Sequence to fold (398 residues):
Amino acid sequence: MIWYPYEQMKTMKPPFKIVDAKGVYLKTPEREMIDSVSSWWSVIHGYKHPVLTEAIKAQADNFSHVMLGGLTHEPAEKLSEKLQSCLPGDLDYSFFSDSGSVAVEVALKMALQYYVNRGQTQRTMVLSLTHAYHGDTFKTMEVGDDEDYHFILEAYGESKNVVHIPTEIPALKKAFEKYHDRLNCMIVEPLLQGAGGMRMYDISFLKEARQLCDEYGVLLIFDEVATGFGRTGNRFVADLVLPDILVLGKALTGGYIGHAVTVANKKVYDGFYGDEPEKALMHGPTFMGNALACSVALKSIELFEQENYMEKIHKIEKITRREMAGFEDPRIKEVRIMGGCVCVEVYDRLCLNGYQQFAYEHGVFSRPFLNYLYAMVPYIIAEEELVLVLRTMKEWFH
Ligand SMILES: *Cc1c(COP(=O)(O)O)cnc(C)c1O
Fold:
């Protein structure tokens, strides 16, 4: 039987069985519902997009997968060229992997080995944010600060190699003063912390972080697995502040297949480049650069550019602000909106119990977690569909 994610199997209610999906709609045998979660924020073009489906079919007719160890192929080459041309600065070196968590692991490994390669073995520490989420594997849980993983703290105790700070400039300065010669990197979800509660913060924090990283020679990693491809209302937050390493996932393939990429700048790449084999980056996921994934990712990025998705996202934000204006309730702590993300934070998580069923009956799929009721819709959503998602959220509190 299936062991479902993040669920107490004894008490979980049966999941909705999906038999078909098209556009923003998920279809069960009984009804259809708008996916306000975009399958964990990845399905930006909606389901069954003809261009993306065709890209996969065409590649499958050719070959689906060959490894990147000693082999290469056009889909991976083309995707790396596309990333190089569309990403800012000299973020030119793409290391592919099969999931966001693994891509973050690769970024953290790169940062550590970058300094080890230079003989600076004392730089073992990572600066990270409170409420951070960077994935479900062990190192990503350690740099993360997700309350679901605090059992790890109970088991292992506080990590000596990770420092967590809030998104406040004084705390940032203090951490650099104290730890700068032991840090190899600072890692952040820029502007929008997703799984840690859809927390939004100001760009000034990232600008200051960039300056301090430059001053003390610390690498700056942006985990844009969730924020990449427009979710914050910026194409990439890396367009505003340039990191040394950028991680993309989730929407990279338009939500069609799991794939992710860790993109390094020239400085990081050069830290591995040379004649010594032991300075090579020691990583290689079996399915890195999968040809189906690369083919569909390439088409997804092309669609994003050709069909002016940034305009679609700005419209989603405008409609969301209009619909949520003046919405308040004693149970609600805050309503937050940024780009294609809206979050209603409540004081008591119990008041969200039953929301999923309520939403289903209104034709919306939603999956609140902890104290957060949120929507991250596919960007192709029509105005009346978005309005239905938002009005359902508001109606719950009436
Ligand atoms: C989802 C997510 C990850 C992990 O990606 P997976 O593909 O689920 O392993 C990492 N970082 C952030 C910011 C995410 O939102």
The CA atoms of residues 234 and 393 lie 25 Å apart. Residues 99-101, 104, 133-135, 189, 194-195, 223, 225-226, 249-250 surround pyridoxal-5'-phosphate (CB under 6 Å). The chain has 13 helices and 16 strands.
